[in-house]
Design goal:
44% helix; alpha/beta; 6 domains; 17 strands; four-stranded parallel β-sheet; PglZ domain protein; six-stranded mixed β-sheet; globular
Length: 677
């Protein structure tokens, strides 16, 4: 089963067209836009503006803005060059007079807001929506909104016409299950005000009196835990009803004190999701007395038979699922993130042992298609991502701002940066953590790293809270990370005494003790911890991706991560985990004979301070990619090795990073909590 996000048309009937028609090239070298609702920072609008030759800079930080503005644009104007620059003011106020005087004198002025786009709908309700849904809402407003709607009417309108939820049509359990499966499997973000409206409607009937609606409607983790509990109960009934089976239905004690609900997993609207939930590890298969008979039916992915058979079935099922859900170059970033999570599940399974020759060949061939498709998408869309709002983080440098805006006042934050951990390796780490501490709860997402996917660029951006162009002086090292981390939080009105940073971690109880002493400081509120162990394993790895997973599993079982998480939770910290880049198994194509001219001499990437030097190496390695300067300093010229290749002796197999594969560029972002009992 596959899902594609709502389309992003640019027709005259689109809300984007009302904005994009204002951007005609060569009208003014500078355009100032009041954009209190962040409309210009929607992915499709950014695509449209950039496709017409405009460059865009958000005005968030006066000093950071001035640095880029003077370096990239004022200098060009002084040379008499034309530009199409857009400066966006994203503050709640639409008052452009807060911008510097020299900009106001030089630029033409525009303003956009939600009230102009959706005049018949309640502003607070529309403002709470993810912009992904504006296409559907704009069309629905044109077709069905005959008059001005208040808050309650707008909530009902949005639920019905955007999310296809009509509470009065929810007449049986399968109706609600289908709605919640569609929502949580697709990771749809529905505003809390709409959830509250739906809850009020559902509680007016006794049909769902025994359902934990307050938990399972807004919270995907709670919903899937609910399904996991009910699955064995369903299997007992399903097995008892199989032709020729006379099976006694066993009593099962649920893990939580929930009523023994019989959920209709076999309803057609529900059943279409079940395979994917088990294949992607969202639900876990269970043992059953009649497992071999059940495995011949549609419930097979939810049944444990033997580890070898279970793995083979999942590999084949996940491969088929990935083949049907592979996004194309017109997809939005959310589709690629969803695919990356499926792809990670498959890659984690592959490393557990040998595969049948036919399956192995299929996976290798499909991998080539994934790489080609993803690279085409990255070339076209990656340049939009760093300007997207940090309220829903898409890239690593969004994370500090997300933490600052989403954490409760006076709370404590621990940011664990596991250097070099790929999404599939996170799955291995998570499995060990779950075995060690079953009460841990992982709210899993993913974000994009920076290109090139190397530590000094991507990890530094994660602690700076800014694109690499803003730390050009330290882009070849990481020694300024503590300063950048502290500076970010000082701008959020924390003092130096409230912020800490520690790196070189992951080696056992000594490091846990070191962290314990650090967080014992009475004023400490925010700590950034760099766990280097996975990156260290990678750079010494000679056994390929399978060896990486094996070593990470052994390291995780030593208990450092479990002890660290237990310590931080016990001290009241909100814990977030991320990685700065992933890694892939790569084959050598030869080492460039360039001496010391390259600023970075990585295995998957070379970086030069001179454009011509990059050109010379590019000519020697056909298929290598000269990457543009998206978010990077002007004198930072990147050359990426071809496909799954590395700048090492020919045919040498290594595990490395720096390039633009799904595995290197899309990394885990996880909130870690303890499950309430």
């Amino acid at each position: 089963m596959t899902h594609h996000a709502p389309p992003t048309p640019h027709t005259e009937s689109s809300w984007r067209s009302l904005i994009l028609r204002e951007f005609t090239p060569k009208v003014a070298r500078l355009t100032l836009v009041a954009d209190p609702d962040g409309l210009l920072l929607e992915e499709g609008v950014l695509d449209g503006i950039r496709s017409q030759g405009f460059e865009l800079i958000p005005f968030d930080d006066h000093i950071a803005f001035r640095y880029v503005y003077e370096a990239k644009f004022r200098s060009r104007w002084d040379r008499g060059e034309d530009t199409d620059l857009v400066v966006v003011l994203r503050s709640p106020s639409s008052d452009l007079t807060t911008l510097p005087y020299d900009l106001l004198q030089a630029g033409r002025k525009l303003s956009f807001n939600l009230g102009d786009l959706f005049p018949k709908l309640s502003y607070p309700v529309v403002a709470a929506l993810d912009k992904t849904w504006f296409d559907t809402l704009f069309e629905a407003q044109a077709k069905y909104a005959q008059e001005q709607l208040g808050d309650t009417a707008t909530k009902a309108f949005v639920l019905r016409h955007v999310f296809e939820i009509a509470p009065e049509l929810i007449k049986q359990p399968s109706d609600l299950l289908h709605i919640l499966l569609r929502r949580h499997y697709r990771r749809q973000r529905i505003p809390a005000i709409l959830d509250e409206h739906l809850l009020q409607e559902l509680r007016q009937t006794s049909l769902f009196a025994d359902w934990p609606l307050e938990a399972i409607i807004p919270d995907a983790q709670a919903f899937f835990a609910f399904l996991q509990e009910r699955w064995p109960v369903f299997l007992d009934r399903f097995a008892a009803e199989m032709p020729g089976e006379q099976m006694h239905v066993r009593e099962r004690a649920p893990a939580y004190e929930l009523p023994a609900l019989h959920l209709p997993f076999d309803h057609p609207d529900v059943r279409i999701y079940i395979d994917n939930l088990f294949l992607e590890g969202i639900l876990q298969p269970v043992a059953h007395d009649q497992s071999h008979e059940l495995a011949k039916t549609w419930v097979k992915y939810g049944i444990k038979i033997s580890p070898a058979e279970d793995r083979l079935r999942r590999v084949k099922g996940l491969l088929a699922s990935c083949e049907t859900s592979l996004p194309n170059e017109k997809a939005n970033y959310r589709e690629w993130i969803h695919f990356a999570q499926q792809w990670a599940q498959l890659n984690a399974l592959i490393t557990e042992g040998e595969l049948q020759a036919e399956t192995d060949a299929k996976i290798r061939q499909f991998t080539n298609g994934v790489d080609a498709q993803f690279l085409a998408w990255v070339k076209q869309h990656y340049g939009n991502l760093f300007n997207l709002p940090a309220t829903d983080p898409v890239m690593l440098h969004h994370l500090p701002r997300y933490f600052a805006h989403s954490l409760p006042p006076k709370s404590k934050l621990a940011f664990l940066l596991v250097d070099g951990l790929s999404l599939d390796q996170w799955i291995t780490l998570r499995e060990v953590l779950h075995e060690q501490e079953p009460t841990l709860l992982f709210r899993e997402r993913a974000v994009f790293a920076w290109i090139p996917t190397i530590t000094s660029v991507s990890r530094q951006a994660a602690f700076a809270g800014q694109p690499p162009i803003y730390f050009s002086e330290s882009i070849h090292t990481t020694h300024k990370e503590p300063e950048l981390w502290t500076t970010f939080w000082e701008k959020q009105e924390l003092s130096k005494a409230e912020v800490a940073y520690l790196k070189g971690l992951g080696n056992g109880q000594g490091d846990v003790q070191k962290i314990d002493e650090l967080i014992a400081q009475p004023k400490l509120r925010v700590v950034g911890l760099v766990i280097n162990k996975v990156d260290d394993i990678m750079h010494g790895m000679q056994l390929g991706s399978a060896g990486m997973h094996n070593q990470i599993r052994q390291w995780a079982r030593q208990g450092f991560m479990r002890d660290l998480i237990t310590l931080l939770l016990g001290k009241g910290f909100h814990i977030y985990l991320a990685s700065d880049h992933g890694n892939i198994e790569a084959s050598g194509v030869g080492r460039p004979s360039e001496g010391v001219v390259a600023e970075v001499r990585g295995e998957r990437v070379r970086v030069y301070s001179d454009f011509r030097l990059r050109q010379q190496t590019e000519a020697v390695f056909p298929g290598s990619l000269a990457w543009g300067s998206v978010g990077l300093p002007a004198n930072y010229f990147v050359l990426i090795a071809p496909n799954r290749a590395a700048f090492v002796p020919k045919n040498e197999i290594i595990v490395s990073h720096g390039g633009i594969s799904v595995e290197e560029l899309i990394v885990p972002f996880v909130q870690i909590e303890r499950r309430s009992q």
